[in-house]
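Retro notes - structure team

What went well: the batch runner handled both jobs without manual restarts.
What didn't: labels got mixed up in the shared folder, which is why I'm recording both outputs here explicitly, each with its sequence directly above its tokens.

Job 1
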Amino acid sequence: MSYLVLARKWRPQTFDEVVGQQPVVRTLQNALRLNRVAHAMLFSGVRGTGKTTLARLMAKAINCEVGAPDQPCNQCESCREITEGRAIDLHEIDGASNRGIQEIRELKENIRFLPSQAKYKIIIIDEVHMLTVEAFNALLKTLEEPPAHVYFMFATTELHKIPITILSRCQRYELKRVAFAELFAFFKKVAGAEGVEIADEALEMIAREAEGSVRDGLSLLDQIFSYGGSQIGVAEVTQVLGLVDRTVFERLARALLAGDLATSLALFDQSYSAGIDLKRFAGDLLHYFRALAIVRAVQEPGPLLDLSDRELATLQEIAAGHSAETLFQYFNLLVKGIEELQYSSRPRLTMEMALVKAVQAGQVVPATELLSRLDGLLQGAALPAKAVAPVAISAAVVREPEPAAFATAPAAEKKTEHADPLEPPAPTQAAAVAVPAAQPARDIRPHWDEFLRYVKERKLWMGQMLALADGIETEGAKVRITFGDAGDGKMLQESENLKLLGELAQEFFQRTLAIRIESRSHSTDNGEDDSTPQEERRALANDPLVQMVAEIFGGQVTGVRPGAPRR
């Protein structure tokens, strides 16, 4: 007798043997038990998840002579005939080969007659989406009101290709990809029953390669069993299937994150010399960094990654030593490299350069930490005249002036209800600062230059930015600071910086102030030609140094204000 492959040998013969489709199985068994079986059922899902298997199990259960209503007995004549493929009242039709209207007409003529042996005629059409539009239309009336002795069961991998008129006449069951843990447990059971001892790491590779398909995994197991005999390890799986051991990606990820270019290129060269497919290698490496990013960003990454506990623990250990920004940066660099690899005539060189770029990117430091470091470096040191603030760089493009922003301290009096645009916000959004009562309050305009020096001593970049203001307007305790370019005052409008500015103003002027930051489009009031300043700003924005800084910080140049010329 010819050899029976594992995919056929381990095809489920009862509902209890179905792997990973418990919600669908429960619904079908309840329908059988309650006598609520639909006359037309449609099973959809990816390959190898059990669509045709469930249709055959339903055919068995419906025609079973002695078993329970919700479970075929596999002992009666009807069950045995279906199992052995010789049941004359079960018609399995290939939708790709019998897709025309003539075949549907013959089917309609056939179902008019009563079943020969079983209680019901069962029509199973596999890959039903391959039928022509005319064939579907010919089936509509029969499908809506079939004879009492007929059940229709359809299976498809492309649900979107089936006309809505057919879908509305069927009871639909969507089968999901089988989870990694269920595939691993099932394959381990199969290996044990077949008398093969296989390492857990090798089974994990097969379960991952199956991508949620039971049939694909069994076909891979069949191939591995033929090669390795009774003892199978990771080496046999990688050699037969042309896969890369997951430990290679682990070591490569550690080397890239550590900035070890030599080790990274050596690992890639070993994999390339082993004959792996470069696109597959690049895709698997990208998936590994995707897993690292998810582990770093999500508290419960298990459901998103669908990995073994051992591999998940390794990912968590690697990700814990790096910031989320660093992992995202590496992922983005690899994505760009892989996109270039798809169209490159020298894919190996492209992949190597992607690894070089990833190593050179280094660790990514958040912008807030960089600003803090910059403050520390600039404390006590004056900037050159040209470097006072020639450009303003922001992570978002400013296209229009933003709504007014305020920094204030809570006032004791109750807020009055009027539409004053300079009215401070509610105390819950204010920066509260204790003001010493012994020191007299200062006027704003006469002491503004002193205030700028006071701010520079504490936050140099903030003082330099305030010095770019075109003017200030005061009205009692209200201060409006106006910038000619939208980008100059952008950072001051951020909530944390605005709060800090309010605190510094209260400390210096010894009173509660409401500060409003505004920006307007640059204009010349004296009628002079503005083409020269525009050209200068354009040249500064396109300066290579400025562009490099913008690329490093992931930002864009949103405004340029030329400094005073050097003498």
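Job 2
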Amino acid sequence: MADNNKRNAADDIVTEEKPVSEWKLMFKTEDWWAVWLGLILLVVGVLIFFPNPPADLGAKIAENQAIMQVEEERAPFRTMAYLNAERALSGLRARDEEPGKTIGTYLGTTARWKDSPVEAFYRSDEEAARRAEAAQPRWETAQANLEAAKAKAEEAEALAAAAGFQDRQLNEQAQAAIAGWQKERAAESSARKAATTEKGYNYIPGWLVLGLGMMIFWGLGARVMGQSFGKLLVAFPAIFIMTIIAFIIGNHETIRALGFSYVLWAIFLGLIIANTVGTPRWLKPALMTEFYIKTGLVLLGASILVGKIALIGIPGIFVAWVVTPIVLIATFWFGQTVLKVPSKELNITVSADMSVSGVSAAIAAAAACRAKREELTLAVGISMVFTSIMIFAMPAMIHALGMPGWKEGAGEVVAGAWIGGTVDNTGAVVAAGELVGPVAMYTAATIKMIQNITIGVMAFCIAAYWALKVERERTGVAGKVDLSFKTAMAEIWRRFPKFILGFVAASVVFSVIFGVKGAPWGEAMVEQGVLAGWANGLREWFFGLAFISIGLSTNFRELWVYLKGGKPVILYVLGQSFNILLTVAMAYIMFMWLFYPLTQRVLAM
């Protein structure tokens, strides 16, 4: 580690650019091409889905919104009519129309499986029909339970309505009965799907088309940047197949339930190959780790909708935007001052991963400070292991504290905010929130989305800090160079990961579309169209390719240097512990004290 101050440009997440004009850089460098390709894909998604909305979309939105407004004014809780209208709105999905359904057959990763990995990608029509027939009794039972729960809920709501919704006890009984009806409705929906899906599936044709399309897509990008198109075409199929294998492992029912997602398996699979037989030289042209990741992050920006902040309001902003920078700065300081982590790049990457939003934040931070691939691999690996533990540990802790029962259920909002502010990845946040309750899941997911908005700001601040302080101290010229505003900004701009601009642009544009057209239209056409039917699926594939590439590019001997003394693990554990304590304190103050009326509105949703 004595040579740590001299960063190897070939190993950096962002390579040093040659001194050419910025105009040429915008069409030659990986950062900028990630922006252009990501935005082009989003435009393609808009052109596919926006002209093909669900039938009578505007009329259905108006009709169900009118019902919801009437019911909201009539009762102090969500009635059955309100929930039916809300469900009807959520059922308006552009991805369920053509050509969305066709596209979905090509972007699918794998199915969940239990007994044989073949189930992940193939099931015959005969086997599907046999399973559907076997599921019929469960569906019949679910239907009977649903009818009974519906009758009970209707009776309880009628009694509450007869009292003008003024009897608190009757209102609570109605809410409990309606919650039971909702639970049985979800169970019936699951049973119906199992009992009526008589056609099998075969992912292989879709993978062939998708693989060919991505091979050409990435090959053209590489060619424009001066790399060999032919060599990438030779190498890419192997990387693509390994990505499929990672998806298959990650979608095993037990493995998935434990929180060990495809990200961990992709890195692990690559590491095994790289550190046993070794990564073949002919594969290396396809190991475009940063290109895959950066393009995927531009697509991620489209799902970070600024309008979501209003759903949780000022308390959510405090939990996500005040706690996050405090934890980031404190853990970086602690790592350098107390633990004395030798690599500042590793320190800030682990800190960003743990304090902001897991993998995406780690990638952005690594790009901003130009961390080595091994450092990013280590940060992501630590994060994935502890995240899988927190999926179950956080809900267990919340239930042990009796938090969901605090102050007539308001504690469930606090629990959701706690999970959203501490568990690293969005998927894990939703899973952990669901183990607590629907309100906790909604709050956790919203808090995490608000927190994700900070990725761009964080990357800029890290780039500025590294450009103006860290690198100057390393070269021994701090205080001896021109620190004028123009020079300082030029240096920050040189280091700043440009793909963040694509991330922010996508977020702003889709937030504006969502805001102008209204939430119901936005959810049907943006969230359940361009994003769920196109961008999110592509992003998952891009990330899979990236993490396979990270594993194949990482040597255990180089990785072991950063694990000496266990300092990165200690940093993560202590930093996350501080994050957990600070987040729950902030969530309690915000949602149970200063903004309790907003908490009550969340509970009533």
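One thing worth noting from job 2: Residues 125-199 form one domain.
We'll revisit the folder naming next retro.
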